[in-house]
Transmembrane 9 superfamily member
Amino acid sequence: MASRISLPVQTLTIALSFLLLFHSVHCFNLFGIRPVDFKKGDDLKVKVKGLTSTKTQLPVSYYSLPFCRPEKIEDDAENLGEILLGDRSENSPYVAKMLEHQLCNIVCRIELDGEGAEELKEKIEDEYMVHMILDNLPLVHPIQIFEHESPLAYQLGFHMGLKGYYSEEQAKYFIYNHLSFTIKYYRDIQSNSTRIVGFEVKPFSIKHEYNGKWKERNTRLSTCDPITKVMVMNSDGPQMVEEGKEIIFTYDIEFQESDVDWPSRWDAYLATRDDQMHWFSILNGLESILVTSGILAVIVWRIYRDIFNYNDLETQDRAQKVTGWKLIHGDVFRPPCNSDLLCVHVGTGVQILGMILGTMLLAILGLLSPCSRGDLTTTMLLLWIFMSLCAGYVSARLYKMFNGTDWKKIAFKTAVTFPSVIYIIFTVLNGLLRAQKSSVVVPSWAMFVLLLLWIGISAPLVFVGSYVGFKKATIEKPVKTNSLHRQIPRQSWYMNPISVVLIGGMLPFSTVFVELSFSLTATWLNQLYWFFGFHLLVFIILTVTCAEISIMLCYLQLCREDYRWWWRSYITSGSVAIYLFLYSISYFSKSLEITKLISMLLYIGYMLVASYAFFVLTGTIGFFACFWFTRVIYSSVKFD
């Protein structure tokens, strides 16, 4: 009776929570952003997205510093993913008219007080960069990295200033107060439409001068005058940041026609000279698969020979001939210790696997756009929630196979264990960001929405999946389990659990570390990265490698008459996460210049979350590979 009542209540809870879910992600656009056609003279809205620093990893709001402000600051409508990432945009005083060139437009004049000067100096010292967008295209600064003939590289945003020295002891700070924008457009003759396909900037530091009284934007600047066509390089020098200094902010706008059409406008931003590194990573992974496949083929041939010989034996000779993995057939499917925890993590691993594959497929099909990281995060969140059904189903089926009787208990553990760990860590990290007054702080209402999505949708779906999974027939074991435990022989040093676990994660990690370095660089050094095709190929290679390594080590363990393979198969494959975390620490020391304690804690916290999720994912892959392997070999032998 209780089950009949609980299902309608859960269904009602899910229906109500769906309303909250769609309200919170109302700006999510599954089919990408449509092109906007402009005409000459149309207003172009330049928006600011805040300031970031690779040295502090603490983004701040653009208007938290003494910059020019519009009459009214307005936040754009955001989806839940943008809010969680702190990827927000606001209007700015930089105004442009389509196809109308502008020279030396005055934005505003600011006189620095002591506090404002110190804030600017601190941000320049920490190498903060300003980020803007136009028509959902990020502002980039084209730079020449190598020789003049090498292609330009695009740097997201521009540094807000630079630091110089007048002497060995005295440092001076200069601010980029003049921005020279270049807006590239594509003109479609057939449709008679004009679309924006590029947004670039060259920043300058200019100590502007003017004669007479200050007349706001009508002031005539002697250093940069649209009438006299004075070039900015003829100014009296860079603009210094000091208390009492007057700073005049200006900008130019130039329009350039481009051959790049609108669907291809992101190609230049996402272009990379490191394609060979991606292919090297894939070829390296394929070589690993070939090696492990060769070894696995030998193992399969040996198993086939053992099974053939064993099944041909006479009944009276069988007891004398049986050795190795065949000897422990009565214990190999004995439920492991802490079987509930194993069921929970395997179910959660299936949930993560579904989320990752779904996100990759949507991105490869072009249903996700790189212009909004919020869409990617929102998609992952939605897939995570709906894959809760699979998590509950898988954990309940394993739980029933391990002789479990209370499906509600395993459903509750599956719904709470992994999300609670992530939510607690995320809350602590968000508190650290709040203490530093960072702009990426997730508001309290958004944290509450996450909690409601978890409790109102994800958890009930886990219970529904568990109910369905527990009603299914119990997974049959190919052999009967003995009532008494068999004694496990003393193992060699190389079959020690620690040794096996460390060896098991080494080869799979070698197949992903190249893509991992690109992902870490994109995340922590604020670079564009949108190569889900490479990601999918590498992920498939990782999956195959984890499965083959787990099967090989499981076979060796069974041959040594050690039947405790359940947890060993999971942890062996999941040990890739250990190498991931160690690599992230190495990356931190070699590639990042973080010195603040708070920033270090944030980095370690986020990488711990990523490593834990990676452990659950790869562990699940290894577990299912070994589960399938043991069922196949033991169901092929005719045991008495």
About this structure: The CA atoms of residues 283 and 441 lie 41 Å apart. The chain is about 50% helix and 15% strand.
